[in-house]
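Preliminary data (for renewal application), 3NM complex.
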Amino acid sequence: MTGGAGGRASLPPGPYLVVDAAVCAAVGRRPADLAAAAVRSGVRTVQVRAKHVGVRELVDLTVAVTDAVRLAGPALVLVDDRVDVALAARARGAGVDGVHLGQSDLEAGDARALLGPGALIGVSAARPQDVRAVDPAVVDYIGTGPVRLTRTKPEAAVAAGFDGLGEAARTSVLPVVAIGGLGLDDVPAVRRAGARGLAVVSAICAAADPARAARMLVEAWQQQPSGMSGPSRAGVA
Ligand SMILES: Cc1ncc(COP(=O)(O)OP(=O)(O)O)c(N)n1
Ligand SMILES: Cc1nc(C(=O)O)sc1CCOP(=O)(O)O
Ligand SMILES: [Mg+2]
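Predicted structure:
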């Protein structure tokens, strides 16, 4: 899935699944099955996140999720943190689309050089100075969180809230994805804040019925008009 300027991938609007290996394991689900179910329900971006596995296992997991997503429907697959894992999965034939980089991961420019011009690259930024520091010539979107404190990432200890999310969206010339403690009821506020996407782990991975949870998020997003005007709203569906 491409379509951004100059052949760059562009971030699909709407719900964004971060398929977290630890959360999936806790509820006895395979990340690849879960990702495929979410894509069949209309989710168009999937990120593979596994903080407590070795690099070889992470490559295997990334290949499995990517292959399952490719069969399920049109969606982008990103890897959390690891450009080397994205490249290794690609070398095995998996169509990994890009990476999501944290503030202490590889610099976005280096990731772009390694992954190429067509890759989708997201970076985490919540504070206005971090948002402004992101280079829009290199990066495709910003992930802002935690909007709420969340047990999925307890080390993220300062909540941005919806005010912080809105400020990030107004500051950024890039699309912003909201993350952290979010679920179905938050779709209106996330859209009002001007975000292009709503990223969730628990709301899909730990739901009683993940396919239904994903479908409800997608439908709620489509029913809700987007909010505000500002630099990052260009192209928001
Ligand atoms: C869409 C999205 N936004 C933010 C994050 C957080 O990424 P990072 O800062 O790398 O933290 P970890 O997820 O690695 O703990 C994300 N993963 N996705
Ligand atoms: C992976 C991640 N990053 C965050 C950030 O704030 O950067 S919060 C988070 C976890 C999101 O999980 P849940 O939807 O279960 O709250
Ligand atoms: Mg990360």
